[in-house]
Amino acid sequence: MKKRLFLPLAFFVVLAAVLGVGLSLNPREVSSPFIGRPAPAFSLPQLQDPALRLGAGELKGQVWMLNVWASWCAPCREEHPLLVSLAREQAVPIIGLNYKDDPRNAQEWLLRLGDPYKVCVIDRDGRAGIDYGVYGVPETFVIDRAGIVRFKHVGPLTQEVWTREVQPLLQQLRG
Amino acid sequence: MLPELGHFALIVALFVALALATLPIIGAARNSRAWMALARPAAQAHFVFVAIAFAALMTSFANNDFSLVNVAANSNSELPLAYRIAATWGSHEGSMLLWVFMLAGWTVAVSLFSSRSPLAMVARVLGVMGFINAGFLLFILFTSTPFARLLPPALDGRDLNPLLQDPGMVMHPPLLYMGYVGFAVAFAFAVAALLSGRFDAAWARWSRPWTTAAWMFLTLGIALGSWWAYYELGWGGWWFWDPVENASFMPWLAGTALIHSLVVAEKRGAFKAWTVLLAIAAFSLSLMGTFLVRSGVLTSVHAFATDPARGAFMLSFLGIVVGGSLALFGWRAASVGFAGSFDRFSRETLLLGNNVLLAAATGAVMLGTLYPLALDALGLGKISVGAPYFETVFVPLMAPLVLLMGAAPLARWKSASLADVAARLKWPALASAAAALLLPWLAGRFSVGVALGLFLAAWVFASTAVLLLQRSRGGAGQLARASRSFWGMVLAHVGIGIFIVGVTMVRGYETERDVKMGLGDHVDVAGYRFTFRGVQEATGPNYVAVRGDLEVRPVAGGASLTMTPEKRLYKEQQMPMTEAAIDAGLTRDLYVSLGEPLDEKTWTVRVYHKPFIDWIWGGAFVMALGGLLALTDRRYRVAVRRERETSLPPLREAAA
Amino acid sequence: MVRALLLAMALTAGAAQAAGPAGDVAADTVLEARVQQLAAELRCLVCQNQSLADSHADLAVQLKGQVREQLRAGRSEQQVIDYMTQRYGDFVLYRPPLKARTVLLWGGPALLLLLGAGSLAWGLRARPRAADLTDAESSRAAALLEP
After folding, report:
1. B343 and chain C: CB distance < 8 Å anywhere?
2. Which of C57, C75, C97 finishes a domain?
3. Chain B, 234-293: which have a CB under 8 Å from a chain A CB?
4. Do C96 and B301 touch (CB under 8 A)?
């Protein structure tokens, strides 16, 4: 029995293993190239007072979360109660980035559903979003004291993701 | 009632398939005639029940039975009848049933057209096919039944995806599946041979027509899909190296290698082990393709709604069928017998070269398609592999293949003279070089890519001419007496040449203008003047549309024609669709696509001139025609005719 | 009646005069060709496997606009590609960059070909040459074939 003749089988077993692992992956998710790199700078007008601006640099020295959202985004509604309760517990400062939205709609939305944001900035044309590699809403980033991006979550933030991944990370980053 | 009947028929079919999968094979191993003889009737009964199920689903669609989830999700009462029927296979569940129906069809065909084969072989072949049938039926019954009821029934359906409401799309899945599924026959023959340990030339001879038939259907199915994308998607592309397209292309490449390998196995008794492996590979690639489209593992515009649970089932099935057959190969292939002897330079070697190149090409496509998945699975991040990669690696593999294609038919079996073949090819080489240098210059612009493409195409035509000349040395009669197999080969190879011309010319000389057109405005493209005459509203059975009106006239003078591109809005799904207007011609297509309205009177319009683009699908059609011709070769027809003419009952054949 | 007809003709003639050669949608067709070519190599991130050139999705149009802007501003194709990969990773490129992790991808097909050709050559080398009959065998065959 020539061993060589089993090479095709061996190859197939490896292939099947790869395909099997593939079943648990999401091929459409874009992994963020920012993890471990400095958060891109921005300087955007604030939603509640457009005369004022907020820059990413101003947040250095604390661990914070950036939440990209819009009033026209249905999944954002799903995660909003969690964000509101996190804000109430003062678990972590949440900065909102209102993405490609009408500020009036955004303000109304927050009035109705609650405002978890320490500050919310307006990214009218989505440029800042592109700088952060945003491709859909909602997306949430965790940024450390030195301004380095440590974590990105695409899609609504769930209790599970918060407990399993974000909370331990925050603890770690705060030392 | 009818859907329940269909569901019940599927269950019965499953049990018949399970019987078919086990009893005849055991019978062959034990030399039990009675058990082996069960194969044919079981295959036929299986087909009847699957057909009943398929008919039940199709009838439900035709009759707008919105109490079925599948019908409600994919059809609509305003959908024309032809598309309601096609909606039968417009979903994952329905197309799986189509798959099984085709497989049952091939199985019953093998049972009907194999009376001259030894019973043991037929028993094993049908048994293997029964096994595959059973697996798919299990998959359907447990994870993807098309007969699920929707209670309370929907008032009307969600309509078939407008992209699928087109004659091309209607025919594309059936043809494609006929091809995919048809390779199961070659697979079954290979596994049967491994089980029995018998690999005489008869095995290759039985396999060949089935393989050619499957290949022919796959060629047509892929070509039709490509042509459909071209005229339906609105920007004139015809191949995107999308994972699902690649999933259909890989079995085609392997199938082409298999056909050539079978020729040698039949005629010369050589390459038998390799041929068996190819037969297993071709169908395995079909199965893998089915898995890729439906499991959510790869992103594709073609992918059905994804479900990892279904994916897991399919992968397990893949593991059993492919893993099992490859294990069997490892265990038994050594007994296949040594390949016949042939010289270092001979037709056999050149055909081996063909196989090496096609295998490398298949491997390259698979590599590109699955590499992102492999990297992601290993945690090495995400990349994308698209057209730029495939075009870079594929063309260098195909060019030598085309060169070989010209040389191999001129080389003798067993021992050929390199000097002789080279001498015969001198003239084609010169003619091709001349064509490659002159034609682009005549067309107005020289480019290396065009020159290379035209060289290869001219090479194909010129070397075929030399071949025909050689064959007619003994007079034209000799050529006329050449077998259909020979003419099939000639036609198939010429088809490739035609295809290359199409691709080369379109790539090299296509022109496009993207313009803003108001009433009366005109744009000149490639010697044609397109004048915009405005838009008007139009309606269809289940859509409303804006129809543009353009008059087209050659600048140099000549008859004018009207082109009417449309922008449709399908009512139910509220989905906008662009219907390009195409004026097809032998030497060019004019392609006009309506863009967006800039104001009441002005629209953006895209106008394309695509030279020789229809040669792409024309070439594929000629290839398929070649396959058809080869299928109807005298030796297969004589066998059938001889049976009919004989009044004596067939001799009882000893079980092998 | 005639007057009305003349008036109508004058109006349509006037309308025809206003018509002329259609202007390109793109302000600069040479630039646009470069934009299209580059956009064809970039992935639309919100689509099911389409390029920026082919997609009409919001983000795709916006990113294509970015490409146009940057090329117009004089940046090179490579700089635009870097801009995109900085934000979205290599995933956004349809032409995978040659890196350590893609060496096998780019080299694979050539490797496969070499392997195949190599085993072919090795297999042929080991093959005994198809021998003609020896003289003794020839005469034996002749004797057997005699009636």
Report:
1. yes
2. C97
3. 273, 277, 280-281, 284, 288, 291
4. no
Q: Nearest by CB to B520, which of C16, C47, C128?
A: C16
- Give me the domain span that covers residue C73: 11-97
Which residues in chain A have their CB less than 8 angstroms from residue C66's CB?
130
Q: Which of C97, C113, C137 is the last residue in one of the domains?
A: C97
Same domain for C41 and C75: yes
Q: Give mean pLDDT, residues A163-169.
A: 92
Residue A80 lies inside a defined structural domain of this protein: yes
Same structural domain for residues C104 and C89? no
Of B480, B470, B495, B491, residue with least CA distance to B631: B491
pTM attached to this predicted model: 0.91
C40 lies in the same domain as C87:
yes
Residue of A nearest to C93 (CA): A30
Q: What's the confidence (pLDDT) of residue B106?
A: 96
Quick check: is C2 in a domain?
Answer: no
**B352, C61 Cβ separation under 8 angstroms:** no
The ipTM (two decimal places) reads 0.89
In chain C, the number of structural domains is 2
- Which of the 8 DSSP states describes residue C74? T
Neighboring chain A residues of B373 at a CB cutoff of 8 Å = 18-19, 22, 25, 27
**B579-595 pLDDT, tens digit each:** 899 999 999 999 999 98
Q: Are residues C93 and C25 in the same domain?
A: yes
- Read off the tokens for B404: 């070989």
Chain C partners of B353 at a C-beta cutoff of 8 Å?
Answer: 120
Residue B266, both tokens? 């039949």
Does A123 map to a domain?
Answer: yes
C-alpha to C-alpha distances, B132 to B26, B47, B378, B619, nearest whole angstrom: 16, 13, 32, 33
Question: How many folded domains does chain A comprise?
Answer: 1
Q: Looking at chain C, how many residues does it have?
A: 147
Angle at A108 between CA A62 and CA A160, to 5 degrees: 50
One domain for residues C31 and C58: yes
| Per-residue pLDDT band at B429 (split at 50, 70, 90) | very high
Q: Which residues of B touch A30 (CB under 8 A)?
A: 382
B387 phi/psi in degrees, rounded to 5? -50, -40
User: From C45, which residue of chain A is nearest by alpha-carbon distance?
Assistant: A135
